[in-house]
What does this fold into?
Amino acid sequence: MDHRDYFSDLARQPGNTALAELFKLTERPDIISFAGGFPGPDMFLPEEAAEVTRQLLVEEPYTVLGYSPTPGFSALREFLAERQSRLGMPAAAGEILVTSGSLQGLDILGRVFLNRGDRIIVEAPTYLGALSTFASYDVRIDSVPVDTEGLDTARLAALLEQLRRQDALPKLLYTVPTFQNPSGQTMSHRRRQKLLDLAGRYGFLIIEDNAYGELRFAGEEVPTLKALDTDERVIYLGTFSKILSPGIRIGWIHTAGEIIERAVLVRQAMDQCSNSLGQLLALEFGRRGLIEKQISKTVHLLGERARLTLDLLAREFPTGTTWTEPEGGFYTWVSLPPAVDTGRLLSHCIEKARVAYVAGAAFYAGKGGNNQMRLCYSQPSLDDIARGIPRLARALTTLF
Ligand SMILES: Cc1ncc(COP(=O)(O)O)c(C=O)c1O
It folds into this structure.
């Protein structure tokens, strides 16, 4: 039986199968992968997680093994509200929705705000998962470039003026302002202020995805957009994926109570509630100070890996190549000479050099990125980085 005739328009879209194939390849032990944006295996606290899990199962088995309320356990919502407040973003528990990872948070917001044909703005490049989520809403997407100061607000202002003249202003702008995936760039304080001004002037909401914001290993702290927002325009997405575990699938939305109420209704039809064990593990990690412990361990390891990666890029990569210098997070973004096609070279680099990266084009809503690649330095060990970057450099050098 051929089921294809039954597929929805969405399921008929080609999607990014190349990426799924790549992730399969990167499971091969002979390949050094700079592809997947995962925490390194040595960043977790497995012994502490085992102890906390055992204790939870012994002391509160019914709560751990049962359903949880759709907005999340009240104790976790209170904990997250306090944590957000401590990080400069005053919150009440009713302004927090616990989600199954922050990507689900984005999907929930899509369902709350977007109708077919609505306009949104994203960064160029931007997080691939967000592009896939937005694709399911059949919205029109405009992109604004990111440079060393983050989203280019002068270009954004020009785009907004043009859209205003066409009576086509956007509803939402999605940004990863700190240690962006994929570019590693951070939006300056000045541009954050400018972005908030533009949101007020042109009447759009901002989704701030801060998956990496607490993972700074160099430079000066910059306040989140949510911390600078005086107008309730910023909807904040948080996650435990990079600071505790992506496997527990726990994130959160922090926004006005009336948006949370709508989001809860929408979420009931999706997965009803988040993983109970994951929520309680995150809460207990928080109460015992283990999240902060894991963050400092992770930041230390990221700093070492980023420095080695950047040093080796400078030493080994062909002339005419540039890369970003992140102050935190997981990624550096490499631009090769314009004639190089990183998508075409990828299978060669995997087969011949046994090194994987993600080709740049996947991170653009429109055209772009053919000569770029994302290197994620969080997962490989220092040894793997020391062997992998020269191998990748040699493979690239022989090709152009
Ligand atoms: C910018 C960004 N947002 C969200 C996510 C997804 O996180 P979660 O595991 O919480 O769904 C990622 C994961 O790579 C990410 O890079």
Q: What stands out?
A: The CA atoms of residues 278 and 322 lie 40 Å apart. The chain has two domains: 14-43+292-397, 47-290. Residues 37, 101-103, 127, 129, 176, 181, 209, 211, 239, 241, 246, 251 surround pyridoxal-5'-phosphate (CB under 6 Å).
